[in-house]
Amino acid sequence: MTTAPAIELREFTALDEVRSDLIDVYAGVRAPLLHLPNYSVISFGERLDRHGSEPGFLAVLGYVDDEPVGYAYANRIEHGDRYWQRTMPEPGEEYTGQPTAALKEIGVRPAWRGTGTARRIHDGLLRARDERFVTLMVNGAAGDGKVHELYRSWGYEDLGQSQPSPTSPLLTVMIRPRADTAL
């Protein structure tokens, strides 16, 4: 892994402050998939607007010379949230019975991949959260399985599966403690 030059991490709790940067980076990150309905910029914008209005929204973007190079954002989910309702098998009370951070999106521009930038943005996001656990969904086919394995190397464990929308692929739901402790 090549080490990235210093990136500045910036936190945003209001979507309107950062929406255009998120969409710009997303379009670069997902360029090969933008023709697919679930990955289109329009679909992302709709999800982003919904997520930005949900409790506990926080985005962390990495900037180099005021240019965004990557992002991650999360919300807080509670017992009964549609996130948990769509997860099969149903997760245990140890996860659903308390507020949990749901990492909804993470992405790094292609030129910054393999530099540790994604991990630095991810860890910056988790440092700003106070929930005990963080969960995410990953497409097992992403990067020929490498993305799933990357999340495992960051301490996430498989919890179940979910299909958030009819146009979405079947995703693996993963979870880990927010802090670097064992599950």
Compute the separation of the termini in Å.
27 Å
Radius of gyration: 15 Å
Q: Please provide the ordered H/E string of secondary-structure elements.
A: EHHEEHHEHEHEE
Structural class: alpha+beta
Q: Biggest sheet: strands side by side, in what order?
A: 1-2-3-4-5-7-6
Q: Total strand count, please?
A: 7
Note the quaternary state here: single chain
Characterization of this structure:
With 183 residues, the protein is of the alpha+beta class. The protein contains 6 helices and 7 strands, in the order E-H-H-E-E-H-H-E-H-E-H-E-E. The protein has helices spanning 19-29, 41-52, 82-85, 93-96, 117-127, 146-153; strands at 8-12, 58-64, 67-77, 100-108, 133-138, 157-162, 171-177. The model has no long low-confidence stretch (mean pLDDT 91).
Question: Can you give me a brief rundown of this structure?
Answer:
Helix content is 27%, strand content 28%.
Secondary-structure blueprint of this entry?
Elements: E1 8-12, H1 19-29, H2 41-52, E2 58-64, E3 67-77, H3 82-85, H4 93-96, E4 100-108, H5 117-127, E5 133-138, H6 146-153, E6 157-162, E7 171-177
Helix pairs in contact: 1-2
Salient structural properties:
183 residues; alpha+beta; seven-stranded mixed beta sheet; 6 helices; 7 strands; 28% strand
